[in-house]
């Protein structure tokens, strides 16, 4: 009996972790990059420059004439400043709360949407982005993982301060980076949500949507993505059940 329980525990320890539905990379070739260098079979970008200023906006975009359609809800658009706005001009998207804003996606292309990327400026630990298929949460990412990864790099200082000419050297307490989100295998998503759970604001620009065929940058280790496989849990529960049955049997054999 105890050998079965030990085997179950061992299986739990050595079982391969279930992969997260996405992997994430940092555009690391040139610190200050504000666009992706990934490869695509189809791609489009929303840069917000032609959008009206103000909060609580809802609008539809084709990401610059692409095969992808996006519907933004409750997003705020503001002018470029030291915290955001690719190129140091134009406009960008921001939220200051939770819930923040959402982006619903569709495409006429077979296979759906498999990539999303954006320039995350003035990055802080409260910036979160979540991916859904219908009403099912597929993956949630806290930008603190990206910040910790950046801080571990030898050239970490290169990611700090606004990299644009118009605001160069400003807001040097926060990193600026372009993040790529790649759906694995057959994973597809139809909705992206942006929330600022703590702290100041969640600034982003150059929202890029597509079907990827080549990754770029350096893959970021994602905290908390190791989940034991169901078979390992089943063995462990079976082990506990056998041990419990053995203990009950022994109690019944104790003389009154």
Structure, explained:
With 256 residues, the chain is of the alpha+beta class. The protein has a single domain, classed as Jelly Rolls. 18% of the residues lie in helices and 37% in strands. The chain is built from 3 helices and 13 strands; from the N terminus they run αβββββββββαββββα. It has helices at 2-14, 143-152, 230-252; strands at residues 22-26, 39-46, 54-61, 68-79, 91-95, 101-107, 115-121, 127-133, 136-142, 177-183, 191-196, 202-214, 218-219. Strands 1, 2, 3, 4, 5, 6, 7, 8, 9, 10, 11, 12 and 13 form a 13-stranded antiparallel sheet that branches. A hairpin with a 2-residue loop joins strand 8 (127-133) and strand 9. Helix 1 (2-14) packs antiparallel against helix 3. It is globular. The chain starts with a helix and ends with a helix.
Keywords:
256 residues; alpha+beta; Jelly Rolls; 13 strands; globular; disordered N terminus; disordered C terminus
Largest sheet: 13 strands, antiparallel
Total DSSP E strands: 13
Number of helices: 3
Domain module tally: 1
Order of helices and strands: HEEEEEEEEEHEEEEH
Structural class: alpha+beta
CATH class: Mainly Beta
Shape: globular
Assembly of the depicted chains: single chain
Unreliable residue runs: 1-18, 224-256
Rounded to the nearest angstrom, the radius of gyration is 23 Å
CATH fold title:
Jelly Rolls
């Amino acid at each position: 009996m105890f050998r079965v329980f030990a085997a179950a525990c061992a299986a739990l320890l050595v079982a391969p972790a279930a992969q997260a539905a996405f992997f994430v990379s940092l555009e690391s070739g040139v610190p200050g990059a504000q666009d992706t260098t990934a490869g695509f079979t189809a791609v489009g970008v929303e840069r917000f420059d032609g959008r009206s200023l103000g909060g609580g906006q809802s609008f539809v975009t084709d990401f610059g004439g692409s095969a992808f359609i996006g519907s933004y809800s409750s997003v705020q658009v503001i002018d470029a400043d030291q915290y955001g706005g690719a190129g140091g001009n134009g406009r960008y998207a921001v939220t200051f709360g939770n819930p923040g804003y959402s982006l619903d996606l569709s495409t006429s292309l077979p296979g759906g949407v498999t990539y999303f990327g954006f320039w995350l400026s003035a990055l802080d630990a409260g910036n979160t982005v979540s991916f859904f298929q219908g009403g099912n949460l597929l993956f949630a990412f806290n930008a603190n993982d990206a910040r910790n990864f950046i801080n571990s790099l030898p050239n970490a200082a290169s990611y700090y301060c606004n990299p644009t000419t118009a605001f160069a050297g400003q807001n040097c307490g926060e990193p600026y980076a372009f993040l790529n989100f790649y759906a694995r295998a057959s994973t597809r998503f139809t909705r992206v949500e942006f929330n600022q759970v703590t702290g100041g604001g969640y600034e982003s620009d150059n929202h890029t949507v597509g079907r990827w065929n080549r990754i770029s940058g350096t893959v970021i280790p994602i905290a908390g993505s190791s989940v034991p496989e169901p078979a390992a849990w089943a063995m462990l529960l079976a082990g506990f059940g056998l041990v419990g049955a053995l203990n009950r049997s022994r109690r019944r054999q104790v003389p009154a």
